[in-house]
Amino acid sequence: MPHSLSSRESQDAADEDSILPDAPPANPEASTAGDGGDLDGSHAAVQDPAKTNVKLEDLFDDDDEDDEEFPSSGVTNGTAPSSSPPASPPQIAPSAKYSDPEVMLAFYQRLFPFRYLFQWLNHSMKPSNDFGHREFAFTLQNDAYLRYQSFPTSDLLRKDVLRLNPSRFEIGPVYTANPRDRKTLRKSTAFRPLAKELVFDIDLTDYDEIRTCCDKANICHKCWSFITMAIKVVDVALREDFGFEHIMWVYSGRRGAHAWISDKRARNMDDQKRKAVAGYLEVIKGGAQSGKKVNVKRPLHPHLARSLEILKEHFQDDILEKQDPWAKPEKAERLLQLLPDKALNDALRKKWEAAPGRSSASKWADIDSLAKAGVSKNLDGKALLEAKQDVVLEYTYPRLDVEVSKKQIHLLKSPFVVHPGTGRVCVPIDTRRVEKFDPLGVPTVTELLGEIDTWDKASIKQESEEAAKKLQDYEKTSLKPYIDYFRTHVGSLLKAEKGVKRERDDDDPMEF
Predict the structure, then answer these.
(1) Cα dist. 233→136, 189, 318, 400 in Å?
(2) 361: region left, alpha or beta (phi > 0 left; psi from -120 to 50 alpha)
(3) Is-catalytic flag, 241?
(4) In the annotation, is 203 catalytic?
(5) What pTM does this model have?
(6) What parts of the chain have a pLDDT lower than 70?
(7) Which candidate in 203, 318, 451, 497 is catalytic?
(8) Which of 40, 64, 135, 451 is catalytic?
């Protein structure tokens, strides 16, 4: 880390020029899953859920904890539904909750953008190993966790999702072989991760020591500003410093955001390169009980200088005014620990003790005012400036879960799944309007299904030509702008992938 003190292809081409509409068949039986009866590619014994103590949060945590590299593929808990999905959308009771299986089934059947997800992960309109050798992991309604699922096409993925009706699913790497066939390979080394998007995870629980409005899984608009800051800083670094273009940020459904970088160069990174990129972006180090968390070289690396410019306005408004982090004496003492001059600290402490209700904004201003008043004869102005810069970074710079970024094998929750704790859909975040993204305004699955019913009833009453126009169900809901954004992102990625392929063909015209 440069700024840290510590180490560390005629027709085929035409076919690809248009994006397939996201219009899955109304009858999922129109397509068949070749090996759908074998839940994880092997004939695993199904355990009785009463005989296991495995919990959902231990297997599939929002914190995306590291997975064992090649664990057993057997069903870990419970039984999987084996009946075929209904040919028509299920009827949802008015009082149904988002966690009800029939609600989730209706969501997958009517709203989930399977075609666009396929195009995004396949990098082409034609099925390829980029999708066929991709691992999916399902968490079922009974908390059973199925790893190493794979599908040749989006229709087969959709069919199995409707059959299994998972509460959510994760996306893993592209392997050298079909994940379902991994146990039939003679050599274990023949099955290894080959490529995966470079990903980043930001979770508000990592800000609990500095946010004063909420803690744990709770969020509000005040503390969501930490995620906004993080997206701004990381996104510009990935684009300007590494040259990545196809970056999509996705709301986690409750208290965080994930970045997916789909550039071919990023997908092909080995673990060492992923670790290096994560290290470049990591500045905040140490837990809640550690001392100084920012230790950076001077002069500041250009990435950090740019980050300070982005963050300084957020520091004044979102930190000093809204979070008021040093209102309590023990929190103010933490600020003093980060300043370099004892005499100045003593003077500040004395002033703040005499005015217990003094705001954090005023305390921050006191640092400069007392320094200029000469309370310390040996004050090093440069050291004080650098210390204040470090304070700004500690309270505003992104706190990344770098372990999520370091390994190809790490699975990450798929975009557009429903968060099981909130019912909110994991929608993309438009970075052009990141300041206006409202996590608490993201639609829930029950709200979306209600919107479809409301639109359909209004259409029948109006009986107008416009209302009778055929629309896909998602276009009747507040999910439409998010899927439209995703479609545009996918279109840009597919265009770039075709360009890469054509360049490769032009470079070696005589190569057979």
Answers:
(1) 30, 38, 15, 11
(2) alpha
(3) no
(4) yes
(5) 0.81
(6) 1-96, 288-289, 463-469, 500-512
(7) 203
(8) 135
